[in-house]
Backbone:
């Protein structure tokens, strides 16, 4: 993240020690985030595949990529709105990086990565002329590793936490040498991360059984390799992640950026009543020779135009009244993607709504399918879309919490990987708005349904939370799904196409028949007693036939137990079950 321009002399103190006279270079921040985002984008499928579970829920690589991409976009947007790096300044740029990573974080791996980026950004922003650059970077990496461990309730070694700590330790050892520079610190840290990553199967048996390294550790290693490449121009050695070797291509981008010919005073946006109504932003894959024509077209459509980047990737920002024409101009130039459109009037209204007095109590819940969303909505909850492969970001949950207008909010994440995301959103809402928010750590959709069923807005907030938490905790949950790959489970080996029964989050049954596996899951859940079985059919059981056959089985074999069947519409899981 320090200034990567090798053609300029590095400032030194009289004794030759490297210093950071301005804390850190904003150009370096931009370069790092772009290279890291591209590297994780290239590695996302590989990292996703390292998840050892047989159901395709593995999205560690995707979550980490979306997190770093959100940080990159936040920095680029801050720079664009300010009119360029000189007008933005490194402080706001680093602040944007941390905020962007926070709001864009998805899944546990994304939240951990965002916490690390925020810790490092804070330390870099505090650096002054008297600080030695290499020492600042080493201390920042130590703080980042500490933040990673603090972000996890029960740290487990053999994960990205271990890789982060090994990198920080190597950085600290490298900086002991008074002649060491920042590039030496990053090179040592990246090498140590690769070594620690290779050792993760020796620390976690589940990794050894699957023959892979830790997915989150691999993602973090990609980020460190990108930092080394951004600073030195070198591509680190390939990393062995499973039986084969994979080389992650990390492009080396030119240090410069190109801005549009707009008045720098206007690039922050004209929000007056006479100004354009929409802000349009997108990334554009296009050759450099098509960008001048794009600028000319967009300049004729509106104002606050900024086009930054370099061949072949550009970031486009413009304020217009004709959104379609602005996007069509991008299509003529190349391939626009990650398109975002903001209506200024709606944005102002949302800001005013957020600042308005708050009252009452609300429940924000994550729904994994349209049927589940309808159930939650009918019960009065504010619904955020989620589910396997589409876990909500911190920003989405924060928007739901702040947008509901309530002073007291209960959040039901309904997924173990979204619990920490919800907690970060809750903490942010409490700090920024003074809203009282509690996360009930529901790890399954059916637990969320159970908790919402006993929600009572009329009783004391603490009592309501206790009742919802206790009910969710006592709701034993299970599921039926289909294996997508060969793997070793708690119930033995499985092959693609096998039916898997899930009990309390663990694969407990492997079979070939959906009805038989569903019955076994229900039987195990009812082994500890129960008065009510809730069955939720998924997208692969659209008419609910499988769910109703299971209900008939329960009524025959457990006649004293009531059964409720719902259409959930969730992906990948034909059935979800709960016993209360």
Residues:
């Amino acid at each position: 993240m320090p200034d990567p321009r090798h053609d300029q002399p590095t400032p030194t103190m009289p004794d030759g020690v490297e210093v950071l006279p301005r804390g850190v270079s904003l150009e370096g921040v931009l370069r790092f985030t772009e290279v890291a985002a591209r590297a994780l984008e290239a590695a996302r499928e590989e990292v996703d595949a390292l998840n050892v579970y047989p159901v395709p829920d593995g999205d560690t690589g995707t979550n980490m990529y979306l997190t770093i991409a959100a940080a990159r976009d936040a920095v680029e947007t801050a720079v664009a709105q300010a009119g360029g790096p000189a007008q933005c300044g490194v402080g706001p740029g680093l602040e944007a990086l941390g905020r962007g990573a926070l709001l864009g974080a998805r899944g546990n791996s994304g939240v951990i990565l965002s916490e690390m980026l925020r810790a490092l950004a804070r330390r870099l922003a505090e650096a002054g002329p008297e600080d030695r650059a290499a020492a600042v970077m080493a201390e920042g990496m130590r703080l980042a590793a500490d933040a990673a461990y603090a972000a996890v309730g029960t740290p487990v070694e053999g994960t990205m936490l271990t890789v982060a700590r090994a990198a920080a330790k190597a950085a600290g050892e490298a900086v002991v040498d008074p002649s060491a520079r920042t590039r030496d610190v990053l090179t040592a840290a990246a090498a140590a991360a690769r070594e620690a990553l290779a050792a993760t199967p020796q620390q976690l048996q589940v990794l050894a059984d699957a023959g892979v390294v830790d997915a989150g550790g691999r993602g973090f290693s990609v980020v460190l390799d990108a930092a080394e490449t951004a600073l030195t121009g070198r591509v680190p050695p390939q990393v062995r992640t499973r039986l084969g070797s994979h080389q992650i291509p990390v492009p080396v981008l030119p240090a410069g950026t190109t801005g549009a010919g707009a008045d720098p005073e206007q690039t922050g946006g004209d929000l007056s009543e006479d100004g354009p109504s929409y802000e349009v932003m997108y990334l554009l894959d296009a050759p450099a020779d098509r960008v001048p024509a794009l600028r000319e077209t967009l300049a004729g459509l509106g104002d606050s135009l900024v086009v930054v980047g370099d061949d072949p990737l550009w970031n486009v920002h413009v304020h217009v009244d004709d959104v379609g024409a602005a996007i069509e101009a991008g299509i003529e130039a190349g391939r626009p993607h990650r398109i975002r459109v903001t209506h200024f009037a709606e944005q102002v209204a949302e800001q005013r709504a957020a600042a308005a007095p708050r009252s009452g109590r609300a429940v924000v819940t994550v729904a994994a399918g349209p049927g589940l969303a309808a159930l939650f909505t009918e019960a009065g909850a504010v619904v955020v879309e989620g589910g396997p492969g589409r876990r909500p970001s911190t920003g989405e949950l924060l928007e739901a919490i702040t947008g509901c207008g309530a002073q007291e909010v209960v959040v039901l994440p309904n997924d173990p990987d979204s619990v920490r995301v919800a907690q970060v959103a809750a903490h942010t809402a409490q700090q920024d708005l003074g809203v009282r928010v509690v996360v009930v750590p529901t790890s399954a959709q059916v637990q969320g349904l159970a908790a919402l069923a006993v929600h009572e807005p009329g009783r004391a907030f603490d009592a309501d939370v206790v009742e919802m938490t206790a009910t969710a905790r006592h709701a034993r949950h299970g599921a039926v799904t289909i294996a997508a790959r060969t793997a070793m489970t708690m119930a033995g080996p499985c092959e693609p196409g096998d039916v898997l029964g899930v009990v309390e989050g663990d694969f407990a049954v492997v079979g070939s028949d959906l009805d038989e596996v569903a019955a076994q899951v229900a039987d195990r859940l009812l082994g500890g007693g129960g008065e009510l079985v809730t069955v939720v059919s998924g997208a692969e059981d659209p008419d609910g036939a499988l769910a109703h056959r299971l209900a008939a089985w329960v009524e025959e074999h457990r006649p004293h137990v009531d059964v409720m069947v719902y259409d959930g519409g969730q992906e990948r899981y034909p059935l979800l079950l709960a016993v209360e």
Confidence is low (pLDDT under 50) at residues 1-23, 243-273. Residues 26-49 form the longest helix (24 residues). The radius of gyration is 26 Å.
